[in-house]
Specification:
Strand order of the largest sheet: 2-1-3
Number of strands: 5
Distance between the termini: 73 Å
CATH topology of the largest domain: 434 Repressor (Amino-terminal Domain)
Helix content: 40-55%
Oligomer: single chain
Bound molecules: zinc ion
């Protein structure tokens, strides 16, 4: 392969854009233009199966801590008549950690939050549906294909 600018034989060609023209040049001439991506020989496309898998992830429900988790912990603890030390002992957290959680300075781990739910009889998690849904399928869990199938089953019974 020859450099398109100086004609020198090049072993590892550089791809540049010079005055809007794509060129294959040698290392020395590469500085005359902007670097350009190599020609698209193999276009990488994701296999369809991979995309399906991602869609399922997007559609899954996520458990997240409720917005007012710190208030819920404090209020429930007081309602139960527990000290921070007592509550800490029940969920395996130091007193200072409970105090920090109630002040929102420390976010409980999922494990700790679940223990707090149990001990205090409160709910700290809520289901959040991923907002980013690819394509139009399944916002309500039913696709047009499902509807057609249901229609067909009804017909079969008649
Ligand atoms: Zn050159």
């Amino acid at each position: 392969m020859q450099c398109e600018l100086c004609g020198k034989e090049v072993s590892s060609p550089r791809y540049i854009v010079l005055d809007g023209v794509r060129m294959i040049v040698c290392e020395d001439c590469a500085r005359h233009g902007r670097p350009a991506p190599p020609p698209a020989q193999k276009r990488i496309t994701l296999p369809a199966r991979k995309i399906d898998k991602d869609e399922k992830v997007f559609q899954s429900m996520k458990k997240v801590l409720v917005e007012d988790w710190s208030e819920r912990i404090r209020e429930a603890r007081i309602r139960k008549g527990l000290s921070r030390q007592e509550l800490g002992a029940k969920v395996g957290e130091p007193t200072v950690a409970i105090a920090k959680m109630e002040n929102r300075d420390l976010r409980p781990s999922d494990e700790t939050a679940r223990k707090l739910e149990k001990v205090l009889g409160i709910t700290l998690f809520e289901d959040v549906k991923e907002i980013h849904l690819p394509r139009s399928t399944s916002s309500g869990g039913i696709t047009i294909g499902d509807l057609l199938k249901m229609e067909k089953q009804k017909d079969d019974r008649d």
